[in-house]
Design a protein that fits this description.
heterodimer; A: 423 residues; mainly beta; five-stranded mixed sheet; B: 205 residues; alpha+beta; 2 domains; 6 strands
Protein backbone atom coordinates (compact mmCIF):
# COMPACT_ATOMS: atom_id res chain seq x y z
CA UNK A 1 0.00 0.00 0.00
CA UNK A 2 1.36 3.41 -0.89
CA UNK A 3 2.09 5.75 1.98
CA UNK A 4 0.87 9.32 1.98
CA UNK A 5 4.43 10.41 1.23
CA UNK A 6 4.64 7.97 -1.67
CA UNK A 7 1.41 9.31 -3.06
CA UNK A 8 2.58 12.90 -2.71
CA UNK A 9 5.87 12.17 -4.43
CA UNK A 10 4.04 10.18 -7.06
CA UNK A 11 1.55 12.98 -7.59
CA UNK A 12 4.40 15.42 -7.93
CA UNK A 13 6.05 13.27 -10.53
CA UNK A 14 2.85 12.89 -12.46
CA UNK A 15 2.20 16.63 -12.29
CA UNK A 16 5.68 17.51 -13.46
CA UNK A 17 5.46 14.93 -16.20
CA UNK A 18 2.18 16.33 -17.47
CA UNK A 19 3.72 19.80 -17.69
CA UNK A 20 6.66 18.64 -19.73
CA UNK A 21 6.54 18.64 -23.50
CA UNK A 22 5.54 15.18 -24.50
CA UNK A 23 4.58 14.45 -20.90
CA UNK A 24 2.38 11.44 -20.57
CA UNK A 25 -0.11 10.34 -17.98
CA UNK A 26 1.35 6.86 -18.27
CA UNK A 27 4.47 8.17 -16.56
CA UNK A 28 5.84 6.24 -13.62
CA UNK A 29 4.36 6.33 -10.16
CA UNK A 30 7.35 7.28 -8.06
CA UNK A 31 8.09 5.56 -4.79
CA UNK A 32 10.91 6.29 -2.40
CA UNK A 33 13.59 3.69 -1.80
CA UNK A 34 14.47 4.82 1.72
CA UNK A 35 16.51 1.87 2.92
CA UNK A 36 18.09 -1.47 2.05
CA UNK A 37 15.59 -3.57 0.06
CA UNK A 38 13.12 -0.69 -0.07
CA UNK A 39 10.35 0.60 2.18
CA UNK A 40 8.95 -2.84 3.01
CA UNK A 41 12.38 -4.50 3.06
CA UNK A 42 11.10 -6.95 0.44
CA UNK A 43 13.15 -5.63 -2.52
CA UNK A 44 9.96 -4.92 -4.43
CA UNK A 45 9.47 -1.39 -5.69
CA UNK A 46 6.06 0.18 -6.22
CA UNK A 47 7.31 2.04 -9.26
CA UNK A 48 5.26 1.59 -12.41
CA UNK A 49 5.59 2.70 -15.99
CA UNK A 50 9.04 1.24 -16.57
CA UNK A 51 10.22 1.02 -20.16
CA UNK A 52 9.97 -2.43 -21.69
CA UNK A 53 12.44 -1.67 -24.46
CA UNK A 54 15.98 -0.78 -23.62
CA UNK A 55 18.64 0.86 -25.80
CA UNK A 56 20.52 -1.71 -27.86
CA UNK A 57 23.74 0.23 -27.41
CA UNK A 58 23.41 0.11 -23.64
CA UNK A 59 22.16 2.58 -21.09
CA UNK A 60 23.47 6.09 -21.33
CA UNK A 61 23.87 7.20 -17.71
CA UNK A 62 22.14 10.39 -16.64
CA UNK A 63 25.18 10.90 -14.45
CA UNK A 64 28.16 9.02 -13.16
CA UNK A 65 30.39 9.68 -10.17
CA UNK A 66 33.56 7.91 -9.05
CA UNK A 67 33.42 5.94 -5.81
CA UNK A 68 35.98 4.08 -3.73
CA UNK A 69 35.97 0.28 -4.02
CA UNK A 70 32.84 -1.09 -2.42
CA UNK A 71 29.37 -2.52 -2.77
CA UNK A 72 27.44 0.16 -0.85
CA UNK A 73 24.22 0.99 -2.67
CA UNK A 74 22.07 4.08 -2.37
CA UNK A 75 18.87 5.06 -0.60
CA UNK A 76 16.55 7.50 -2.35
CA UNK A 77 14.04 9.83 -0.71
CA UNK A 78 12.27 12.45 -2.80
CA UNK A 79 14.73 14.13 -5.12
CA UNK A 80 17.87 13.07 -3.24
CA UNK A 81 19.98 9.99 -2.84
CA UNK A 82 22.32 9.05 -0.04
CA UNK A 83 25.29 6.71 -0.13
CA UNK A 84 28.45 5.78 1.73
CA UNK A 85 31.91 6.25 0.29
CA UNK A 86 35.54 6.38 1.39
CA UNK A 87 38.53 8.60 0.63
CA UNK A 88 41.60 6.39 0.48
CA UNK A 89 43.97 9.36 0.29
CA UNK A 90 42.79 11.00 3.50
CA UNK A 91 41.54 7.82 5.19
CA UNK A 92 38.09 9.30 5.71
CA UNK A 93 34.74 7.59 5.72
CA UNK A 94 32.21 9.61 3.75
CA UNK A 95 28.44 10.01 3.65
CA UNK A 96 27.15 11.73 0.52
CA UNK A 97 23.83 13.36 -0.25
CA UNK A 98 23.28 13.98 -3.96
CA UNK A 99 20.52 15.20 -6.21
CA UNK A 100 18.88 12.31 -7.98
CA UNK A 101 18.49 14.32 -11.18
CA UNK A 102 22.15 15.09 -11.83
CA UNK A 103 24.22 13.49 -9.09
CA UNK A 104 25.52 16.77 -7.73
CA UNK A 105 26.62 16.87 -4.13
CA UNK A 106 24.16 18.51 -1.75
CA UNK A 107 26.25 17.79 1.33
CA UNK A 108 29.06 15.52 2.36
CA UNK A 109 30.09 14.36 5.80
CA UNK A 110 33.55 12.98 6.48
CA UNK A 111 35.03 11.24 9.47
CA UNK A 112 38.52 9.88 10.02
CA UNK A 113 38.53 6.12 9.74
CA UNK A 114 41.57 3.97 9.04
CA UNK A 115 40.44 1.17 6.76
CA UNK A 116 42.62 -1.21 4.82
CA UNK A 117 40.77 -2.31 1.70
CA UNK A 118 39.78 -5.92 2.21
CA UNK A 119 37.72 -7.11 -0.74
CA UNK A 120 36.71 -3.45 -1.11
CA UNK A 121 35.61 -1.10 1.66
CA UNK A 122 31.99 0.08 1.85
CA UNK A 123 29.02 -2.26 1.99
CA UNK A 124 26.06 -0.67 3.76
CA UNK A 125 22.97 1.07 2.39
CA UNK A 126 21.75 3.95 4.58
CA UNK A 127 18.22 4.38 5.93
CA UNK A 128 16.64 7.77 5.46
CA UNK A 129 13.46 9.42 6.79
CA UNK A 130 12.19 12.99 6.78
CA UNK A 131 14.64 14.08 9.48
CA UNK A 132 17.62 11.79 9.65
CA UNK A 133 20.05 9.62 7.72
CA UNK A 134 21.20 6.46 9.51
CA UNK A 135 24.01 4.23 8.43
CA UNK A 136 26.68 1.87 9.72
CA UNK A 137 30.20 2.55 8.52
CA UNK A 138 32.70 -0.22 7.68
CA UNK A 139 34.12 -0.24 11.21
CA UNK A 140 30.70 -0.66 12.79
CA UNK A 141 29.90 2.89 13.93
CA UNK A 142 26.21 3.73 13.59
CA UNK A 143 25.75 7.34 12.49
CA UNK A 144 22.66 9.52 12.72
CA UNK A 145 22.98 12.59 10.49
CA UNK A 146 20.67 15.52 9.87
CA UNK A 147 19.01 14.82 6.53
CA UNK A 148 19.26 18.45 5.41
CA UNK A 149 22.81 19.27 6.45
CA UNK A 150 24.60 15.98 7.07
CA UNK A 151 25.66 17.14 10.53
CA UNK A 152 25.96 14.48 13.18
CA UNK A 153 23.01 14.19 15.53
CA UNK A 154 24.36 11.16 17.40
CA UNK A 155 26.64 8.21 16.83
CA UNK A 156 27.21 4.88 18.49
CA UNK A 157 30.15 2.58 18.15
CA UNK A 158 28.90 -0.97 18.12
CA UNK A 159 32.40 -2.03 19.20
CA UNK A 160 32.64 0.33 22.17
CA UNK A 161 29.00 0.48 23.21
CA UNK A 162 28.02 -3.15 22.64
CA UNK A 163 31.32 -5.06 22.55
CA UNK A 164 30.73 -6.02 18.93
CA UNK A 165 33.45 -7.55 16.79
CA UNK A 166 33.93 -5.99 13.38
CA UNK A 167 33.43 -8.88 10.97
CA UNK A 168 35.93 -9.94 8.36
CA UNK A 169 35.53 -7.76 5.28
CA UNK A 170 34.00 -5.03 7.46
CA UNK A 171 30.44 -4.19 8.25
CA UNK A 172 27.85 -5.26 5.71
CA UNK A 173 24.78 -4.70 7.86
CA UNK A 174 22.19 -2.13 6.77
CA UNK A 175 20.27 -0.73 9.72
CA UNK A 176 16.53 -1.48 9.76
CA UNK A 177 14.44 1.68 10.05
CA UNK A 178 10.95 1.36 11.47
CA UNK A 179 8.43 4.15 12.07
CA UNK A 180 9.60 4.85 15.61
CA UNK A 181 12.88 3.01 16.02
CA UNK A 182 16.00 1.56 14.51
CA UNK A 183 16.87 -2.11 14.81
CA UNK A 184 20.45 -3.22 14.60
CA UNK A 185 22.36 -6.39 15.39
CA UNK A 186 25.47 -5.99 17.49
CA UNK A 187 26.64 -9.32 18.85
CA UNK A 188 28.75 -8.98 21.97
CA UNK A 189 26.58 -7.44 24.70
CA UNK A 190 23.34 -8.03 22.79
CA UNK A 191 21.96 -9.90 19.83
CA UNK A 192 19.77 -7.05 18.64
CA UNK A 193 19.07 -3.59 20.00
CA UNK A 194 16.16 -1.26 19.32
CA UNK A 195 17.16 2.39 19.38
CA UNK A 196 15.22 5.61 19.64
CA UNK A 197 15.57 7.32 16.27
CA UNK A 198 16.06 10.82 17.63
CA UNK A 199 18.48 10.06 20.46
CA UNK A 200 20.04 6.68 19.78
CA UNK A 201 19.12 5.51 23.26
CA UNK A 202 18.26 1.87 23.82
CA UNK A 203 14.59 0.95 23.76
CA UNK A 204 15.45 -2.68 24.44
CA UNK A 205 18.35 -5.09 24.13
CA UNK A 206 18.19 -8.81 23.47
CA UNK A 207 20.55 -10.64 25.84
CA UNK A 208 23.25 -12.68 24.17
CA UNK A 209 24.12 -15.57 26.48
CA UNK A 210 25.32 -17.68 23.55
CA UNK A 211 27.80 -14.96 22.53
CA UNK A 212 26.56 -14.79 18.96
CA UNK A 213 28.78 -12.64 16.78
CA UNK A 214 27.59 -9.89 14.49
CA UNK A 215 27.32 -11.10 10.91
CA UNK A 216 26.79 -9.30 7.60
CA UNK A 217 23.07 -10.02 7.82
CA UNK A 218 20.63 -7.11 7.91
CA UNK A 219 17.65 -7.48 10.23
CA UNK A 220 14.31 -8.19 8.57
CA UNK A 221 10.85 -7.41 9.93
CA UNK A 222 8.20 -10.13 9.80
CA UNK A 223 4.89 -11.14 11.33
CA UNK A 224 4.90 -14.87 12.00
CA UNK A 225 2.02 -16.75 13.60
CA UNK A 226 0.53 -13.38 14.42
CA UNK A 227 3.55 -12.00 16.27
CA UNK A 228 5.57 -9.06 14.95
CA UNK A 229 9.23 -9.93 15.14
CA UNK A 230 12.67 -9.22 13.77
CA UNK A 231 14.55 -11.93 11.92
CA UNK A 232 18.31 -12.20 12.16
CA UNK A 233 20.90 -14.77 11.20
CA UNK A 234 24.42 -15.64 12.28
CA UNK A 235 26.84 -18.44 11.57
CA UNK A 236 24.79 -20.41 14.10
CA UNK A 237 21.49 -20.07 12.24
CA UNK A 238 18.36 -17.92 12.05
CA UNK A 239 16.37 -16.53 14.97
CA UNK A 240 13.35 -14.36 15.70
CA UNK A 241 13.08 -11.60 18.29
CA UNK A 242 9.91 -10.00 19.61
CA UNK A 243 9.35 -6.51 18.26
CA UNK A 244 7.60 -5.55 21.48
CA UNK A 245 10.30 -6.17 24.03
CA UNK A 246 13.34 -7.69 22.32
CA UNK A 247 12.77 -11.12 23.80
CA UNK A 248 14.22 -14.04 21.88
CA UNK A 249 11.18 -15.90 20.53
CA UNK A 250 12.92 -18.75 18.73
CA UNK A 251 16.20 -19.82 17.23
CA UNK A 252 17.12 -22.67 14.95
CA UNK A 253 20.69 -23.95 15.48
CA UNK A 254 22.18 -24.55 12.07
CA UNK A 255 25.74 -24.03 10.91
CA UNK A 256 26.61 -21.48 8.25
CA UNK A 257 30.12 -21.00 6.93
CA UNK A 258 32.60 -18.13 7.17
CA UNK A 259 30.23 -15.22 6.61
CA UNK A 260 26.46 -15.00 6.71
CA UNK A 261 25.23 -12.26 4.38
CA UNK A 262 21.72 -12.95 2.98
CA UNK A 263 18.99 -12.11 5.48
CA UNK A 264 16.52 -14.68 6.76
CA UNK A 265 13.24 -14.01 5.01
CA UNK A 266 9.67 -14.91 5.93
CA UNK A 267 8.07 -16.78 3.04
CA UNK A 268 4.71 -17.48 4.65
CA UNK A 269 2.84 -17.13 7.94
CA UNK A 270 4.97 -19.77 9.60
CA UNK A 271 8.12 -20.32 7.54
CA UNK A 272 11.50 -18.60 7.35
CA UNK A 273 14.15 -19.26 4.70
CA UNK A 274 17.84 -18.65 5.28
CA UNK A 275 20.58 -19.22 2.75
CA UNK A 276 24.32 -18.70 3.02
CA UNK A 277 27.65 -18.65 1.29
CA UNK A 278 30.69 -20.94 1.22
CA UNK A 279 28.76 -24.13 0.46
CA UNK A 280 26.48 -23.67 3.47
CA UNK A 281 23.33 -24.41 1.51
CA UNK A 282 19.97 -23.20 2.73
CA UNK A 283 17.36 -24.09 5.31
CA UNK A 284 13.62 -23.57 5.60
CA UNK A 285 12.47 -23.26 9.20
CA UNK A 286 8.89 -24.03 10.13
CA UNK A 287 7.54 -22.33 13.26
CA UNK A 288 4.85 -23.60 15.60
CA UNK A 289 3.35 -22.12 18.70
CA UNK A 290 2.81 -23.94 21.93
CA UNK A 291 0.78 -21.39 23.85
CA UNK A 292 2.89 -18.26 23.61
CA UNK A 293 6.12 -20.18 23.07
CA UNK A 294 7.56 -20.61 19.59
CA UNK A 295 9.09 -23.86 18.37
CA UNK A 296 11.35 -24.03 15.33
CA UNK A 297 12.04 -27.07 13.18
CA UNK A 298 13.45 -27.71 9.72
CA UNK A 299 10.85 -27.97 6.97
CA UNK A 300 13.80 -28.95 4.78
CA UNK A 301 17.53 -28.44 4.91
CA UNK A 302 19.81 -28.24 1.88
CA UNK A 303 22.84 -29.35 3.86
CA UNK A 304 24.57 -30.64 0.77
CA UNK A 305 24.35 -27.22 -0.79
CA UNK A 306 21.70 -28.20 -3.27
CA UNK A 307 20.99 -24.49 -3.63
CA UNK A 308 22.40 -21.37 -2.06
CA UNK A 309 22.78 -17.66 -2.58
CA UNK A 310 26.10 -16.11 -1.67
CA UNK A 311 25.26 -12.48 -1.01
CA UNK A 312 21.72 -11.47 -1.72
CA UNK A 313 18.40 -12.25 -0.09
CA UNK A 314 15.73 -13.97 -2.19
CA UNK A 315 12.66 -12.03 -3.25
CA UNK A 316 9.41 -13.67 -2.18
CA UNK A 317 6.64 -13.11 -4.69
CA UNK A 318 3.33 -14.88 -5.12
CA UNK A 319 4.37 -18.07 -3.37
CA UNK A 320 7.80 -18.47 -4.96
CA UNK A 321 11.33 -17.35 -4.19
CA UNK A 322 13.55 -15.67 -6.78
CA UNK A 323 17.28 -15.22 -6.43
CA UNK A 324 20.67 -15.62 -8.06
CA UNK A 325 22.02 -18.98 -6.95
CA UNK A 326 25.70 -19.77 -6.86
CA UNK A 327 25.94 -22.71 -9.19
CA UNK A 328 27.29 -22.26 -12.71
CA UNK A 329 28.44 -18.70 -12.11
CA UNK A 330 25.10 -17.54 -10.84
CA UNK A 331 21.84 -18.68 -12.34
CA UNK A 332 18.75 -16.60 -11.69
CA UNK A 333 16.40 -19.13 -10.18
CA UNK A 334 12.76 -19.53 -9.27
CA UNK A 335 12.37 -21.78 -6.24
CA UNK A 336 9.17 -23.23 -4.87
CA UNK A 337 8.60 -22.87 -1.16
CA UNK A 338 9.59 -26.51 -0.72
CA UNK A 339 13.00 -25.75 -2.17
CA UNK A 340 12.59 -27.20 -5.64
CA UNK A 341 14.00 -25.40 -8.64
CA UNK A 342 11.04 -24.36 -10.78
CA UNK A 343 13.23 -22.79 -13.44
CA UNK A 344 16.67 -21.26 -13.85
CA UNK A 345 18.45 -19.10 -16.39
CA UNK A 346 20.70 -22.03 -17.32
CA UNK A 347 21.75 -21.81 -20.94
CA UNK A 348 20.41 -18.29 -21.26
CA UNK A 349 22.26 -16.06 -18.82
CA UNK A 350 24.51 -16.08 -15.80
CA UNK A 351 24.73 -13.38 -13.19
CA UNK A 352 27.78 -14.04 -11.01
CA UNK A 353 27.00 -12.41 -7.68
CA UNK A 354 24.85 -9.69 -9.16
CA UNK A 355 21.99 -8.03 -7.30
CA UNK A 356 18.35 -7.85 -8.29
CA UNK A 357 15.07 -6.24 -7.44
CA UNK A 358 11.48 -6.34 -8.61
CA UNK A 359 9.38 -3.50 -9.99
CA UNK A 360 6.38 -3.10 -12.25
CA UNK A 361 5.92 -6.84 -12.75
CA UNK A 362 9.50 -7.60 -13.74
CA UNK A 363 12.76 -8.55 -12.13
CA UNK A 364 15.74 -6.32 -12.84
CA UNK A 365 18.79 -8.52 -12.49
CA UNK A 366 22.41 -7.43 -12.82
CA UNK A 367 25.15 -9.65 -14.20
CA UNK A 368 27.66 -9.13 -11.42
CA UNK A 369 30.54 -10.03 -13.73
CA UNK A 370 29.79 -7.98 -16.82
CA UNK A 371 27.50 -5.15 -15.72
CA UNK A 372 24.73 -6.14 -18.11
CA UNK A 373 21.25 -5.54 -16.73
CA UNK A 374 18.46 -7.92 -17.69
CA UNK A 375 14.70 -7.57 -17.39
CA UNK A 376 12.95 -10.83 -16.62
CA UNK A 377 9.24 -11.43 -16.41
CA UNK A 378 8.14 -11.94 -12.80
CA UNK A 379 6.48 -15.27 -13.36
CA UNK A 380 6.90 -18.81 -12.11
CA UNK A 381 6.13 -20.21 -15.54
CA UNK A 382 9.66 -19.84 -16.89
CA UNK A 383 12.68 -17.66 -17.57
CA UNK A 384 11.38 -15.03 -19.95
CA UNK A 385 13.85 -12.26 -20.67
CA UNK A 386 12.15 -9.11 -21.90
CA UNK A 387 15.16 -6.87 -22.41
CA UNK A 388 18.85 -6.53 -21.67
CA UNK A 389 21.36 -3.72 -21.94
CA UNK A 390 24.83 -2.90 -20.75
CA UNK A 391 24.69 -0.62 -17.72
CA UNK A 392 28.16 -0.89 -16.20
CA UNK A 393 31.40 -2.41 -17.34
CA UNK A 394 33.35 -2.70 -14.13
CA UNK A 395 34.00 -5.87 -12.18
CA UNK A 396 32.11 -7.05 -9.10
CA UNK A 397 28.84 -5.29 -9.85
CA UNK A 398 27.36 -6.60 -6.65
CA UNK A 399 25.93 -3.51 -4.94
CA UNK A 400 22.19 -3.39 -4.20
CA UNK A 401 20.09 -1.40 -6.65
CA UNK A 402 17.84 1.54 -5.86
CA UNK A 403 14.92 2.75 -7.96
CA UNK A 404 12.77 5.84 -7.56
CA UNK A 405 11.08 8.28 -9.88
CA UNK A 406 11.96 6.11 -12.86
CA UNK A 407 15.66 6.47 -12.09
CA UNK A 408 17.80 3.54 -11.12
CA UNK A 409 21.02 3.98 -9.18
CA UNK A 410 23.63 1.28 -9.77
CA UNK A 411 27.28 0.84 -8.95
CA UNK A 412 30.33 -1.26 -9.56
CA UNK A 413 33.64 -1.15 -7.76
CA UNK A 414 34.65 2.25 -9.10
CA UNK A 415 31.61 4.28 -10.07
CA UNK A 416 27.98 4.97 -9.24
CA UNK A 417 25.60 5.73 -12.08
CA UNK A 418 21.99 6.70 -12.58
CA UNK A 419 19.99 5.47 -15.57
CA UNK A 420 16.52 6.34 -16.77
CA UNK A 421 14.12 3.39 -16.60
CA UNK A 422 10.90 5.21 -17.47
CA UNK A 423 8.90 4.49 -20.59
CA UNK B 1 49.60 -31.28 -70.74
CA UNK B 2 52.36 -29.05 -69.50
CA UNK B 3 49.79 -27.63 -67.10
CA UNK B 4 49.24 -31.14 -65.66
CA UNK B 5 52.97 -31.66 -65.19
CA UNK B 6 53.42 -28.37 -63.50
CA UNK B 7 50.46 -29.14 -61.26
CA UNK B 8 52.02 -32.50 -60.38
CA UNK B 9 55.34 -30.82 -59.73
CA UNK B 10 53.64 -28.23 -57.66
CA UNK B 11 51.81 -30.87 -55.61
CA UNK B 12 55.01 -32.85 -55.21
CA UNK B 13 56.85 -29.77 -54.00
CA UNK B 14 54.06 -29.00 -51.59
CA UNK B 15 54.11 -32.51 -50.14
CA UNK B 16 57.91 -32.51 -49.88
CA UNK B 17 57.78 -29.10 -48.30
CA UNK B 18 55.15 -30.18 -45.82
CA UNK B 19 57.09 -33.28 -44.86
CA UNK B 20 60.28 -31.31 -44.46
CA UNK B 21 58.48 -28.65 -42.45
CA UNK B 22 56.90 -31.34 -40.28
CA UNK B 23 60.25 -33.03 -39.77
CA UNK B 24 61.81 -29.70 -39.05
CA UNK B 25 59.08 -28.82 -36.58
CA UNK B 26 59.38 -32.18 -34.89
CA UNK B 27 63.14 -31.81 -34.75
CA UNK B 28 62.81 -28.33 -33.35
CA UNK B 29 60.30 -29.59 -30.81
CA UNK B 30 62.68 -32.39 -29.79
CA UNK B 31 65.55 -29.96 -29.51
CA UNK B 32 63.47 -27.61 -27.41
CA UNK B 33 62.24 -30.46 -25.27
CA UNK B 34 65.80 -31.71 -24.84
CA UNK B 35 66.80 -28.20 -23.82
CA UNK B 36 63.92 -27.99 -21.37
CA UNK B 37 62.12 -25.29 -23.33
CA UNK B 38 58.99 -27.44 -23.84
CA UNK B 39 57.44 -28.62 -20.61
CA UNK B 40 54.32 -30.22 -19.27
CA UNK B 41 52.02 -27.71 -17.61
CA UNK B 42 48.51 -27.49 -16.17
CA UNK B 43 46.09 -25.32 -18.11
CA UNK B 44 44.04 -23.57 -15.41
CA UNK B 45 41.25 -22.83 -17.85
CA UNK B 46 40.68 -26.58 -18.26
CA UNK B 47 41.61 -27.92 -14.82
CA UNK B 48 38.45 -28.83 -12.90
CA UNK B 49 39.97 -27.55 -9.68
CA UNK B 50 40.83 -24.14 -11.10
CA UNK B 51 38.10 -23.56 -13.62
CA UNK B 52 35.28 -21.17 -12.81
CA UNK B 53 31.80 -22.59 -12.69
CA UNK B 54 33.01 -25.89 -11.22
CA UNK B 55 31.46 -25.64 -7.77
CA UNK B 56 29.85 -28.07 -5.41
CA UNK B 57 32.01 -30.96 -6.62
CA UNK B 58 34.88 -32.75 -4.98
CA UNK B 59 38.40 -31.72 -5.95
CA UNK B 60 39.97 -33.83 -8.70
CA UNK B 61 43.02 -35.66 -7.31
CA UNK B 62 44.36 -37.31 -10.47
CA UNK B 63 47.51 -35.17 -10.42
CA UNK B 64 48.33 -36.80 -7.08
CA UNK B 65 47.35 -40.35 -7.89
CA UNK B 66 48.69 -40.63 -11.45
CA UNK B 67 52.05 -38.86 -11.40
CA UNK B 68 55.10 -41.15 -11.17
CA UNK B 69 56.95 -38.62 -9.03
CA UNK B 70 56.76 -39.06 -5.28
CA UNK B 71 53.80 -36.98 -4.02
CA UNK B 72 53.44 -35.66 -7.61
CA UNK B 73 55.29 -33.14 -9.73
CA UNK B 74 52.16 -31.02 -9.59
CA UNK B 75 51.93 -28.75 -6.57
CA UNK B 76 49.66 -25.94 -5.51
CA UNK B 77 51.15 -22.51 -6.04
CA UNK B 78 49.87 -19.29 -4.49
CA UNK B 79 50.33 -16.21 -6.65
CA UNK B 80 50.75 -13.52 -4.02
CA UNK B 81 49.96 -10.75 -6.45
CA UNK B 82 46.41 -12.12 -6.69
CA UNK B 83 45.88 -13.37 -3.12
CA UNK B 84 43.30 -11.46 -1.06
CA UNK B 85 45.28 -12.18 2.12
CA UNK B 86 42.00 -12.72 3.96
CA UNK B 87 41.68 -13.51 7.63
CA UNK B 88 39.25 -16.31 6.81
CA UNK B 89 40.80 -18.02 3.83
CA UNK B 90 38.62 -20.84 2.47
CA UNK B 91 41.70 -22.53 1.04
CA UNK B 92 43.43 -22.56 4.41
CA UNK B 93 40.54 -23.28 6.74
CA UNK B 94 37.98 -26.03 6.52
CA UNK B 95 35.14 -23.55 6.41
CA UNK B 96 32.62 -26.23 7.28
CA UNK B 97 34.26 -26.89 10.65
CA UNK B 98 32.94 -25.40 13.88
CA UNK B 99 33.73 -21.75 14.49
CA UNK B 100 35.86 -20.85 17.50
CA UNK B 101 35.51 -17.87 19.83
CA UNK B 102 37.43 -15.68 17.39
CA UNK B 103 34.96 -16.42 14.64
CA UNK B 104 37.47 -18.59 12.79
CA UNK B 105 36.89 -22.12 11.55
CA UNK B 106 38.53 -24.53 13.97
CA UNK B 107 40.09 -26.89 11.41
CA UNK B 108 42.42 -26.57 8.45
CA UNK B 109 41.55 -27.75 4.97
CA UNK B 110 44.86 -29.23 3.81
CA UNK B 111 45.11 -32.90 4.82
CA UNK B 112 48.91 -32.61 4.78
CA UNK B 113 49.04 -29.29 6.65
CA UNK B 114 51.07 -27.88 3.79
CA UNK B 115 49.82 -24.30 4.10
CA UNK B 116 51.06 -21.96 6.78
CA UNK B 117 49.98 -18.43 7.44
CA UNK B 118 51.46 -15.42 9.14
CA UNK B 119 50.11 -11.97 9.71
CA UNK B 120 51.58 -9.27 7.51
CA UNK B 121 51.36 -5.51 7.76
CA UNK B 122 50.29 -3.58 10.83
CA UNK B 123 47.91 -5.21 13.29
CA UNK B 124 44.77 -3.27 14.08
CA UNK B 125 43.84 -4.11 17.69
CA UNK B 126 40.35 -2.67 17.19
CA UNK B 127 39.75 -4.79 14.15
CA UNK B 128 41.60 -8.12 14.29
CA UNK B 129 39.27 -9.82 11.80
CA UNK B 130 40.55 -7.57 9.03
CA UNK B 131 44.24 -8.09 9.52
CA UNK B 132 46.01 -9.50 6.49
CA UNK B 133 47.74 -12.84 6.20
CA UNK B 134 50.27 -14.40 3.89
CA UNK B 135 49.56 -17.99 2.94
CA UNK B 136 52.63 -20.01 2.02
CA UNK B 137 52.49 -23.49 0.55
CA UNK B 138 55.23 -25.88 1.64
CA UNK B 139 56.27 -27.66 -1.56
CA UNK B 140 57.77 -30.51 0.37
CA UNK B 141 54.40 -31.31 1.93
CA UNK B 142 52.03 -30.46 -0.90
CA UNK B 143 50.98 -33.38 -3.08
CA UNK B 144 48.88 -31.42 -5.55
CA UNK B 145 45.56 -32.81 -4.37
CA UNK B 146 43.86 -29.59 -5.42
CA UNK B 147 41.54 -29.17 -2.45
CA UNK B 148 42.83 -25.66 -1.72
CA UNK B 149 42.64 -24.77 -5.40
CA UNK B 150 38.98 -25.77 -5.54
CA UNK B 151 38.21 -23.41 -2.65
CA UNK B 152 40.32 -20.48 -3.84
CA UNK B 153 38.05 -19.69 -6.72
CA UNK B 154 36.18 -16.60 -7.83
CA UNK B 155 33.89 -15.04 -6.89
CA UNK B 156 34.64 -15.53 -3.21
CA UNK B 157 38.20 -16.67 -3.61
CA UNK B 158 40.40 -14.77 -6.00
CA UNK B 159 41.83 -17.76 -7.81
CA UNK B 160 45.34 -17.04 -6.60
CA UNK B 161 46.09 -20.71 -5.87
CA UNK B 162 46.43 -22.93 -8.91
CA UNK B 163 48.04 -26.25 -9.69
CA UNK B 164 51.34 -26.08 -11.50
CA UNK B 165 53.79 -28.67 -12.77
CA UNK B 166 56.93 -27.80 -10.85
CA UNK B 167 59.84 -28.00 -13.28
CA UNK B 168 62.24 -28.95 -10.53
CA UNK B 169 60.13 -32.02 -9.74
CA UNK B 170 58.89 -33.08 -13.16
CA UNK B 171 60.76 -35.91 -14.89
CA UNK B 172 59.48 -34.67 -18.23
CA UNK B 173 58.23 -38.07 -19.32
CA UNK B 174 57.44 -38.46 -22.97
CA UNK B 175 54.08 -39.91 -22.02
CA UNK B 176 53.00 -37.98 -18.94
CA UNK B 177 50.76 -40.22 -16.84
CA UNK B 178 48.66 -37.30 -15.62
CA UNK B 179 48.18 -36.03 -19.13
CA UNK B 180 47.00 -39.45 -20.25
CA UNK B 181 44.45 -39.73 -17.47
CA UNK B 182 43.19 -36.15 -17.21
CA UNK B 183 39.59 -36.15 -18.46
CA UNK B 184 39.78 -32.46 -19.32
CA UNK B 185 43.09 -32.61 -21.23
CA UNK B 186 44.33 -29.99 -18.82
CA UNK B 187 47.97 -31.15 -18.80
CA UNK B 188 49.70 -30.33 -22.06
CA UNK B 189 53.15 -29.56 -23.43
CA UNK B 190 53.79 -25.88 -23.73
CA UNK B 191 56.77 -23.54 -24.12
CA UNK B 192 58.38 -22.96 -20.78
CA UNK B 193 57.58 -19.52 -19.47
CA UNK B 194 59.50 -17.70 -16.82
CA UNK B 195 56.21 -16.30 -15.54
CA UNK B 196 55.07 -19.74 -14.47
CA UNK B 197 57.90 -19.97 -11.98
CA UNK B 198 56.17 -18.02 -9.26
CA UNK B 199 58.26 -17.18 -6.27
CA UNK B 200 56.82 -19.14 -3.45
CA UNK B 201 57.56 -17.12 -0.36
CA UNK B 202 57.35 -13.53 -1.28
CA UNK B 203 54.59 -11.09 -0.45
CA UNK B 204 53.85 -7.65 -1.72
CA UNK B 205 53.66 -5.78 1.59
Amino acid sequence: MLSRRDLLVGAGTLGASALLPGGSLTAAVAADWPQFRGPQRDNISKETGLARKWPAAGFRPLWSVPVAPGYAGAAIVGSRLYHEDYDEKTAEWIMNCRTLADGKLVWQTREKREIRPNHAITRAVPAVDARFVYTVDPKAVLHCLDVKTGKHVWRKSLVTDYKATIPSWYNGQCVLMEADRLIIATGGAAILVALDKATGKDIWRTPNPGNLMMSHVSVMPATLLGVKQYLYGTLKGPLGISADDGKLLWEFPRKFNVAAAPSPVAVSEDRVFMTGSYDAGSVMVRLKKNGAAFQAEAAFDMKNNEWNSELHTPIVYKGFMYAVGKKKRGLFTCLSLDGKEVWTSDGKATFGLGSYMMADGVFLVMDGDSGKLRMIEASATGYNELASAQALSGEEVWGPMALSGGKMVLRDLSKMICVNMSA
Amino acid sequence: MSDAVSRRELLSKLVRGSVLAGMGGAALFLVKKANGEIVWQVDASRCVNSRLGEVGVEACTLCTSECVVSLSAVRAVNDFSKCGRCNVCPAYFDITSAVNELGLPSQKLCPRDAITRKMIGAADPEDPANNFYEYVIDEEKCDGCGRCVMKCKAPLGLGSITLKVRYNKCLDCNRCAISLSCPKDAVTQVPKMAGLEIKLAEHTE
